[in-house]
Amino acid sequence: MTFRFRTFGAAALLAGSLHALPAFAETTLNVVMQAPLRSLDPILSTAQIVRTHGFMVFDTLLGMDAKYNPQPQMADYAVSADKMTYTFTLRDGLKWHDGTPVTAADCVASLKRWAANDGAGRTMMGSVASIEATSDKVLVVKLAKPFGQVLELLAKPSPVPPFMMPKRLAETPAGQQVTEMVGSGPFKFVAAQYRPGDQAVYVKNTDYKPRAEPMSWTAGGKTVNVDKVVWKAMPDMQTSINALQSGDVDLIEQVTIDLLPLLKANDEIKTGAINALGSQVTGRFNHRLPPFDNPKVRQAAMYALDQEQLMQTAIGDSQYYKLCASVYGCDVPLASDAGSEYLKGSAKERMAKAKELLKASGYDGTPVLMMQPTDLTILSTQPIVAAERLREAGFKVDVAAMDWATLQSRKNSTQPVAQGGWNMLFTYWGVSGIWNPTVHALLDGSGAETAWSGWPKSARVEELRAAFLTAPTLDEQKTIAREIQQIAYDEGFYFNAGEFQSVAAWTAKLKNLQPGPLTLFWGVSK
Q1: Which among 221, 127, 113 has a CA at the least distance from the CA of 164?
Q2: What is the pTM of this model?
Q3: Could you cite one Gene Ontology molecular function of this protein (predicted)?
């Protein structure tokens, strides 16, 4: 009886212990992203952090693989022999996060919202006769005139991908943020745990059915191997590194290069580039306000600025950056040396040229308001260095320190500086978002209110961008792209400050981190 009693007691304790355990051990990735997430609508923002958030929650009709080829994602497609009709058929099993089925009507509304807010999308719509749903699963795009980049634009991963969302959200009035993060992507956004600028939480979408093809960038099967992803904001890099080494953080998306030696000595930490293409730093001029409404003043500024100095200050180690003239990225098919005369010569020679041009321009001493994001490490130094170079050339410069979210909002202002406007800012663009004239937002020469901030105007660039869309061969595309690049330098669309490679750091517990045009959270396991 004593034996039986003790056995029963042990069994009861064991049963109680098992009952207290969760049904499974939840796998959570804790991540420090390159910037805090303060805005959620991925159609109304070109910020990289918002785009990455978009790919967590939403999906696209097509994805782009590592060779820049459009591939089916939410939909398979067929193109008519004359390339004037594109038919997209949604794959089976697609559901929105609220449980309702994805329909072609949802996708039609989403494409229209995207095109109204993306420069490349607006360009495409100028050649579109109609977009309509012919059934619950089929939508058809008919062109009014030839347009050679339909598939490429529907697959583009940056800067504003054509994310699909329910019709009720896609019909949100122009300029207004969508009110819910309801997509059909591999993760669900946990709104109750979102703290703007501090934390964002995503959980695995158990209804998501990945494609069967191997994943490649945003194409192929998006297989999620973790239960939860938590983005944490840690503006101080040393704090982030301490958290990674202690195990409180699994991944830092972007580590400052000078602190890499601290991590390389730790066998439990891995470092490397998970975005193989890198990013281009860009110094954007506001063409609408003095003094940069004068092309000669813009040219003077471009000669005053120096790629090497800006990259050395921001990155430091030359193995992590490249200097080239190409506005499309240093290693893409359209890369060329057009406009390189604005970048060549010693710092002393360039400064002498800048002073000469500024004097000839009639510059009257109007101050330059330079915006500086203090909470984005990779961009916090360039405005300071650039301001000193411009002052040496003869400019008056005021540096306005602000957080990244404020800069993102202020850059859209067309008002005078005294009323919240600006003259110059630095940002950076993933090469996957600038690799040709159609997707490159900074090469929009329309001068339109809807163009990306800075608003340069060039009828010739717009003619060339239109010609690029129908150029039948790569050689012809290269010729057109080269002329656009030369004009962009001559007209001072922006200063190409060089290309850098982001370096991530992660715990050795993470396996199969996937390379891509942005940080991908599918494929990875812990």
Answers
A1: 113
A2: 0.82
A3: peptide transmembrane transporter activity
